[in-house]
Amino acid sequence: MQIDIKKYKTIVFDCDGVVLDSNVVKTEAYFRTAKHLGATDEQAQALVDYHVRLGGISRYHKFDYYLREITHQPVTQEAIQILLDEFARELEVVLLECEIAEGLDTLREATPKASWMILSGGDQQEIRTLFAKRDLAKYFDGGLFGSPDNKDTVLAREKENGHLQFPALFIGDSKYDFEASTRAGLDFVFLSDWTEVADWQDFCKKNQINVAKNLMELL
């Protein structure tokens, strides 16, 4: 796959599976979160399956679905917050230890005029704290964005306020990344090395999506 990475004024990166090898640890954290709060193995696995199917979607939405459709409990702010807090505790250590994508600094040097932005389904404050601790925030002069706002909302807002300049590229590893990118008018590259999309090859072929294994292949 060949793409002229230097032509873009804005490059938007998903976080999990693109900048960090964190898809698997997050999936495991969903299972443990449900179990620690009283779920059966079947209920915890149902949450995991829903999470994987909706890669890139906010955890707020997933926990709402978990309460409503899997455990059939009242969906209250308190119930959601208990799940969010437990999930954050599960992630606190593992996100500090997971692998950072090779070539991030080289890619940044190759695109000195581009504004870089993180757009994640993960919690926005969690991402900002994590990237500060891991010395990654310095690369992303365009901002670090995450839930509770979804990706469509953030892209529309950043276009409206002029922070997202075109031509723009979105680098992601989920179907939702591609769909949100397309709706916002950005070019898109799918990274395959760390994705959890089981049928990614068929999906990318069907939608004629540019594919790279990892960030190094974009250089």
Identify the CATH class of the largest domain: Alpha Beta
- The CATH superfamily of the largest domain is HAD superfamily/HAD-like
Mean pLDDT: 96
- Strand tally: 6
CATH architecture of the largest domain: 3-Layer(aba) Sandwich
Order of helices and strands: EHHHHHEHEHEHEHE
Strand order of the largest sheet: 3-2-1-4-5-6
The name CATH uses for the topology of the largest domain is: Rossmann fold
Largest sheet: 6 strands, parallel
Number of helices: 9
Q: Return Rg in Å.
A: 17 Å
Strand fraction equals 5-15%
- What would you call the shape? globular
Protein model, in words:
The structure is a single chain. Strands 3-2-1-4-5-6 form a six-stranded parallel beta sheet. The longest helix is centred in the middle third of the chain and has 21 residues, at 77-97. The chain folds into two domains: 5-21 and 98-218, HAD superfamily/HAD-like (Rossmann fold, 3-Layer(aba) Sandwich); 24-97. The protein is α/β, with parallel strands linked by helices. Helices cover 47% and strands 14% of the residues. The model has no long low-confidence stretch (mean pLDDT 96). Helix 1 (23-36) runs antiparallel to helix 2 (41-53), helix 3 (59-70) crosses helix 4 (77-97) and helix 7 (151-160) packs parallel to helix 8 (175-184). The radius of gyration is 17 Å and the shape is globular.
List the helices and strands and how they pair.
Layout lengths: L9 E4 L9 H14 L4 H13 L5 H12 L6 H21 L6 H7 L4 E9 H10 L10 E4 L3 H10 L7 E5 L2 H10 L2 E5 L8 H7 L3 E3 L7
Parallel strand pairs: 1-2, 1-4, 2-3, 4-5, 5-6
Helix pairs in contact: 1-2, 1-4, 2-3, 3-4, 7-8
